[in-house]
Write a structure and sequence with these properties.
alpha+beta, paralog of FGE (formylglycine-generating enzyme), 2 domains, 4-stranded antiparallel β-sheet, 4-stranded mixed β-sheet, globular
């Protein structure tokens, strides 16, 4: 009996010790409270206070839909009726990312202008630069003055896609949106307090905040963001995982991959049926419920807003086809399998890429993209980051040839025309510290002399209310200068996913 009691106590002790070890996790097991490399405890001010928070889960930013990455055949899947031969088929892989559920709306862009006016009211040039061009609606031989006056400003069009926005303006909007979302993330996590009195350059900018050039008032901090000595709370670092990556324009490959929505026609790594347009396979209704295939009652219904033929933009009175004379609200029609609305028709959409006819063959197989301009922070003679600009942003410059002379993975700071086959890409262009968004001095100008294509030519995709069905295929591509705008081009934003491509992200709350 004593022996049984002894063994019982012994086993209880072993289980208890095992439980303690599991909880303490001395060498970095499940809970990772200690370093598996050195055995020292994380987040302990007594041994230096090295801070590490495990279990990161990606967060979906407001307005975004998760796009799980994968491989697909990018490029032409129908007859090239235009004879451009600029979308040759090629298999590529796109990493997981996020993309706006809809095109950016007029109300979204008005919110942006309101913020600019409130914060930069003393500099009218900033707001004027951001204004969409409402005169894009004018036509010498058409009466479109109602659109000029009403389309952007009137509440009746709030849910319609913004147009008259150039590629440059779309990029500026994405940068602004990144900062506003990261600011609210820090406020929601009680890292900083809300500051409604931001003015001029003293507004929240993510990079300026991380560089210590934005004076934010600390809050209590829901997470234990303590200083190394454990006595005071601190500001968030990028490694804390609280802030989100930048909103940006999607690359052409990301946009095309997302537009096809290849979920409803795949099985065990096989695409059973290619798509010309985004809407074959499983559909998702506007109320979110799923259904498979075509139902008889839905046969013949329009799936996108486009011009059905010469002079036919909306159908007959009493029997309209797509229900829109120009654009339609951004949640019109069925979304594709990823849950994205109007990736065909309504408005064309800017993507990030510089246009070259042979991009499909030139660019890399993983995350293909032409348009990289590699920048670094502008620093003084002591290596310190110089004061931010009037927008409240950290100043940047393009990397120089001297800085890249020992690199192997990339050798030019401005890669927009890198190996594009023209004579200018094979000559020494020298160094540059110019920002190519506003000054093209570091790029190749020779190609712009002999053709309409230059380093400012940007791709747009998707087709619009003005276009025939051919342009609604996600593989088709056209281009326009980045400082120009039209009444049938809008945009939507994307965001990179950090970490594992299979890490299921948390929904925005």
């Amino acid at each position: 009996m004593k022996q049984i009691i002894f063994y019982g106590i012994f086993f209880t002790f072993i289980i208890s010790l095992s439980s303690c070890n599991s909880k303490l996790n001395v060498f970095g097991g499940k809970n990772k409270t200690h370093s598996s490399t050195t055995g020292w405890k994380y987040n302990d001010p007594d041994n230096g206070g090295f801070q590490y928070y495990n279990g990161y889960q990606a967060q979906i930013g407001p307005g975004l839909v998760h796009i799980p990455g994968g491989t697909f055949v990018m490029g032409q899947n129908q007859k090239d009726v235009m004879g451009d031969w600029n979308n040759i088929r090629r298999r590529v892989t796109v990493a997981s990312f996020f993309m706006d559920e809809t095109e950016v709306r007029n109300v979204d862009y008005r919110e942006y202008l309101y913020w600019l006016s409130r914060v930069h009211g003393g500099d009218d040039s900033i707001t004027q630069t951001a204004l969409p061009d409402t005169l894009v609606w004018r036509d010498e031989l058409a009466y479109n003055e109602p659109q000029v006056q009403n389309y952007f400003r009137h509440t009746a069009f709030s849910e319609y896609p913004v147009v008259g926005v150039s590629w440059e303006q779309a990029n500026a909007y994405a940068k602004w949106r990144s900062d506003r979302v990261n600011e609210i993330m820090l406020i929601k996590n009680r890292v900083i307090k809300e500051n409604p009195d931001q003015q001029g350059a003293e507004n929240f900018n993510t990079e300026a905040y991380l560089a210590g050039q934005y004076d934010a008032e600390l809050d209590k901090g829901l997470r234990d963001l303590s200083s190394q000595d454990g006595k005071d709370i601190r500001h968030a670092n990028w490694s804390d995982g609280i802030m989100l990556p930048d909103y940006r324009l999607p690359t052409e490959a990301e946009w095309e991959y997302a537009a096809y929505g290849l979920l409803g026609n795949t099985e065990k790594e096989i695409i059973k049926e290619g798509r010309v347009y985004p809407w074959t396979g499983k559909w998702v209704r506007n109320d979110g419920s799923r259904k498979s295939g075509n139902k008889r009652k839905d046969m013949g219904k329009m799936m996108a807003n486009f011009a059905r033929g010469n002079g036919d933009y909306m159908g007959l009175a009493g029997s309209l086809n797509d229900g829109g004379d120009i654009t339609v609200p951004v949640k019109s029609f069925w979304p594709n399998d990823f849950g994205l609305y109007n990736t065909a028709g309504n408005v064309n959409e800017w993507v990030a890429d510089v246009y070259r006819p042979m991009n499909p063959l030139d660019v890399s197989e993983f995350n293909p993209y032409r348009g990289n301009v590699f920048k670094v922070n502008v620093t003084d003679e002591n290596g310190n980051i110089v004061e931010k600009d009037k927008y409240g942003r950290i100043k940047k410059r393009v990397q120089t040839k001297e800085e890249l002379k020992n690199r192997k993975n990339y050798t030019v700071g401005d890669a927009r025309n890198y190996k594009d086959g023209d004579p200018g890409s094979r000559i020494d262009q020298g160094d540059s510290t110019l920002d190519p968004m506003y000054n093209n001095g570091s790029g190749n100008e020779l190609i712009g002399i002999t053709s309409m294509i230059s380093d400012k030519s940007r791709v747009y995709k998707g087709g619009s209310w003005r276009d025939r069905a051919f342009w609604l295929s996600p593989s088709t591509r056209r281009f326009m200068n980045q400082d120009m705008a039209r009444d049938d081009i809008g945009f939507r934003c994307a965001m990179s996913q950090i970490g594992s491509p299979e890490n299921k992200p948390k929904k925005w709350k």
